[in-house]
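Write out the 3D structure for:
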Amino acid sequence: MGKVYSKFRPMTSNLSAFRFSSFVSDRLRTKYGAFLFIVSLMLFNVNCSNAQSTGNGKGEVIVMNKADFLSKIYNYEKNSSEWVYEGKRPCIIDFYADWCGPCKRVAPVMKELAAEYKGRIDIYKIDVDSERELASVFGINSIPLILFVPLEGKPQAAAGALPKATIVEQIKEFLLVRE
C-alpha cells in the first residue's frame, strides 16, 4: 500500500482556517478532520482543568499582584520597619512560576486546601516572574515558596514542593491554633 501525503495550506478567506490538499481522499480527510477535532477538544479540556483558579476567596486560590498584596497582606511601602498583616483571616501565599515543575505539583494541593478551608483561610498565589518586586522584597531565590501568614505574629516560609500533609500540619499548628 502506498503512502498518503497531506499538505496544509491556508485558505484564501480572512479566517485562519486550513484545508487539506487535494492529494488526500475525501474519506481520509473526514476521518483525519474528526481526529484533529477530537484531539483539540481533549487538549482544550486538559488546559482548562490545569488552569489555576482566580477567585474571590470563597474556596478558590486567588491570584495576587503587588497592589493586592499591599492592600490585603502587608503594605511594606507604608510600614517597612514592622510586619502588620492587613487580612481578616490567616492566609497562605504560594510564590510560583508557570514554568516551574514543583510549582505545578503544588497548585492542585493549594486548590484542594482552598476548598477544604473555605472561609477559614485565604489562599493566594503570586507569579514571581510577573511580580519581581514582591519576590525581591521576600528574597525569594527558589520556588515554590509557601508563606504561612497568621492573624497575629510574623509569617513563616517553607521552600519546595511540600506534600499536602505537611501543609495541613502547618495550618493546624501555626495558622488555626486558636480554633
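Residues 69 and 99 are 22 Å apart (CA to CA).
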